[in-house]
Amino acid sequence: MKPQPFWHWPGWRQLGRFLLLASAVTAWFVLVFGGADFLTGQHRYRVRLHFDAELAMPFVPSAVVGYMSIYAAFWMAPFILRTRQELQALAQTLLIVILVAGLCFLIFPGELHFPAEGDLGIWAGPVQFARQLALTYNLAPSLHVALSVACIAIYARQAHTLGKWLLWLWSVAICWSTLLLHQHYVLDVVTGFLLGLAGVYGAYDSHRYDRAGRPESPCSE
């Protein structure tokens, strides 16, 4: 059987489904991520999430390019996943990952202690924008890492060997970018990576089949 190409045109109906699911996931993210940050800001209890040596990690403002590439990972979904069931399973996976991370943010509220950076030059605008999106206290697990790993792990299943390597290298680049931008500690990245994988194997794999336990046929629109 000839393998399917990695990319495909999903059809307008499938794109519409994706936009509806993406809107629901975004709303849930804003509620959970923003709500956890707000609640943490109402008290002073914080958990130490870093080693002192991590505070000497270099700050690389250009890493914001890799950091913001996570949004490409979200928008790729309908052009890689071929069925309605797969898109729904991805959305359900991201919803669960966000919920688990949100609970962890409330139980283990953290705070960044990196030294102040100097002039950011041409990267000042993008870095400040990325920091505004990341809010203040939601550190472990890194939801940025967890969501990107979940998407990339799912997409990698559709790719050939070279594609798998490129996708996982992209995932590693996103992980490193959170450290080089001083947005997260190592513990945040590791726990975020594990959460993303757990979401794929625990949630996605149990939702991408029909009621008879079979994968849905690709959409033909």
Describe this entry's structure for a reader.
By secondary structure, the protein is an all-alpha fold. It has a domain at 61-110 and 123-221. It is built from 9 helices and no strands. The chain has helices at 12-40, 64-68, 70-75, 77-80, 84-107, 124-134, 143-156, 161-180, 186-207. Helix 7 (143-156) crosses helix 9 (186-207). It is globular. The mean pLDDT is 93.
Helix % is: 55-70%
Total strand segments:
0
Strand residues, percent: under 5%
Query: Secondary-structure element sequence?
Result: HHHHHHHHH
Distance between the termini: 22 Å
* Classification by helices and strands: mainly alpha
- Spans of at least 5 consecutive residues whose pLDDT stays below 50 are none
* Radius of gyration based on Cα positions: 18 Å
Quickly count the helices. Answer: 9
Largest sheet: none
Overall pLDDT metric: 93
Q: Characterize the overall form.
A: globular
